[in-house]
Amino acid sequence: MELQEFKTKVYPLKDRLYRQALFMLKSVEEAEDTLQDVMLKLWHKREQLLGYTSVEAYAVTMTRNACLDKLKSKKHKHGFDIQEMELDSGVLTAQEKMEQMQGASVMMQAFDRLPEQQRKLILLREVEGFSYEEISERTGLEVNNIRVALSRARKAARATYLKLVNYEQSI
Fold first, then answer.
1. What is the tens place of the pLDDT at every residue in 19-39?
2. Rounded-to-integer distance, Cα 141 and Cα 9, Å
3. Which one of 31, 46, 109, 153 is least enclosed by Cβ atoms within 10 Å?
4. How far apart are the C-alpha atoms of 34 and 20, rounded to whole Å?
5. In terms of Cα–Cα distance, which of 117, 19, 105 is closest to 64?
6. Architecture in CATH for domain 3-76
7. Which pLDDT band, with edges at 50, 70 and 90, does 54 fall under?
8. Can you list the alpha helix ranges (DSSP code H) found in the chain?
9. What CATH number labels 94-170?
10. Which residues form the RNA polymerase sigma factor 70 region 4 type domain (predicted)?
């Protein structure tokens, strides 16, 4: 498809595509950006467009998908306000460090209260990062038994952790 044919077949669709993007994104800037991206993609795919029965349907679908991608992205936030923005330096405050250390300490207490086999399985799977098959080779247990034991160990550790945390908060 040459430039002149692109101008007659695709360029007239820009108003419809813009209205669709504006309706979905509720932002003039986002709609303009999306329209620009879609038009650029259509230009790069101009040779393939000849194979489509309806270039308009393809362009509308492309625009809809681009809008959905923007809406799903973490960058897009409807009603964005600069005042709501929190700057995170990546450095933990003293209080956050203390809370992390306390949480880790309570978690270790919860794991220490597990039976030996469950502790060993948690260590192999979660700390060492072994696969179920590798754990099976090391322990002689079947993979399904390992999965069940790990599930029970996690539930028991979680319950113990919550009891310990709730106890500390009630003091």
1. 999 888 888 999 999 999 999
2. 66
3. 109
4. 10
5. 19
6. Orthogonal Bundle (1.10)
7. confident
8. 3-9, 14-25, 28-44, 46-49, 55-72, 94-112, 116-122, 132-139, 143-170
9. 1.10.10.10
10. 108-156
